[in-house]
What does this fold into?
Amino acid sequence: MRASSGLLPAFALWALTVTGEAAETDARPNKAPSSSVMLAGAWVPANSHDIDFDHLPRIPSQHAVVSDVLSAGGHRVNQHNYLVHFAGKFWAMWSDGPGESRGPGKVPGHDRADQHVSFATSDDGLSWSAIGNMTGRPDVGYGWIARGFWIREGKLLALASRYEAPGYSGPGLSLHAFELAAADPITWRHLGLVFDDALNNFPPARIPSGEWLMSRRDGKQDVHVMIGGVKGFDRWESFPAVSYANADFKAEEPTWWVLPDGRLVSMYRDNRGSGFLYRAFSTDNGRTWSSPVRTNFPDAKSKFSATQLKDRRFVLVSNPHPKRRDPLTLAISRDGLVFTAMGYLVGGRHIDYPDVMEHEGSLYVAFATAKQTVEVLRIRVTDLDELEKKQNAKGNR
It folds into this structure.
């Protein structure tokens, strides 16, 4: 993920195994790191921005509202939603703070002082408890932003970054862990600093080496990769990835996963506004990466979330409309590289910042409306089979 004119040394070893010019011209991303193919199928037009996003096949779901400050009026934010299942319960966390209106019909800001992290629990993912305060009130002039759940050594940790308001950059940025200390009543305690000058996008996940990996954005908005977390929740090595001053695109909010062959692949939204996701690969467990390449997967310059299902398929939940954060969709890939089906989840309004997880045959997707709600969809995994059949047979309607 490091910006450069060529490929980094460790990755070059893999690239050289691809014969001759095929490494530069092969359209298959499993053969060429320069491939732009990430969305394919008879239903996909030559320019993926021309997809009729509002009329994609509907994916059935059940819906629940966890928190809603939109209907209460005023200017308050609920945003940055995360889910996990732990100790027989679903847990949700999100940023909860004062907002600043950006004009009639506009969503409020979400980076003001006095923001904290809230949470709620559920037995079934649809009926949610009363809301609790996880982090407590921040220091004057600062705020907390929700950064996800981490199950480590059988304990539930919640990550939150402390920032000096307004904005999530500059001095004062640091990533912290809170530990679930008691279940009845639910009590969280501040475990300590995870890493200074850090704003991760999703919590750590395992890589083939057995280590944990997560992204880190520093106060300059440069993206790094953090690897470690085994010897301690606060024991990490950080590797520079993409500079925000990159001439090609402005990397933001990366998501990554492990491919079937053990390589890692990462995706970025582009804050420069190309309207497409960027992709990079690693062959050395995240230490070095290929130069990010713009794919043909459309994107609204919004956060997206992915997971690999127990049946080995990959799903990506995102806002693919290049001009607006509406609708929220789910795409399916068999190899983790090329997505061949896309279905409509929810829309008709500003809707964004998803987090997706699988549990006992269902997918759970948390998201926000106008940055002022926390909502959850429950989707049967078997309904994704129907989506694949429908698009493979008839294309996009």
In short: Residues 9-102+110-394 form a domain with the Neuraminidase fold (CATH 2.120.10.10). The radius of gyration is 20 Å.
